[in-house]
Amino acid sequence: VLQTYKNVLIPAVENGLANLTTSSEWDANHNASHARLSYVDRAGASSWSAGKNLVGEYIQLGMGRLVALYLLKIQGRGDGDQWVKTFKLQISKNGRDFTYVNGGQIYNANTDRNTITTLRFDNPIYCVSVRILPETWQGHISLRTEAMVTTQFEY
Length: 155
Hints:
Elements: E1 10-11, E2 19-22, E3 48-49, E4 59-75, E5 83-92, E6 98-100, E7 107-108, E8 117-138, E9 142-150
């Protein structure tokens, strides 16, 4: 059973709590603002897409305050066969210094463009920022994401 503070989880991206930044972007039509879960763009790309297909590219969700991260959702590019297959996570408690989650564990992500993969943490991860670092991908590094967090908690 998922235990949260007063059983309330906030979708950080959808509610504007998370500021999305990236290591790079393919172009202005593939920027971080396109990385919201289930985002569809009629004129541009329906995802963030990295400038290059290289390990080390990332998308960062900066919360601006300490949060408890319970769930991370990942989805591929809605208008093309591009998605992240596996990724690592880094977190920061001050927004500057990052460390790998679980020693650099590789997590499974998507197998198609629209299915939402949910990574559930047995214990919440306390952080100010979280980075998703794709390790393998289909076609091109492209994704949409959401972080389910709570901002009020007891240690």
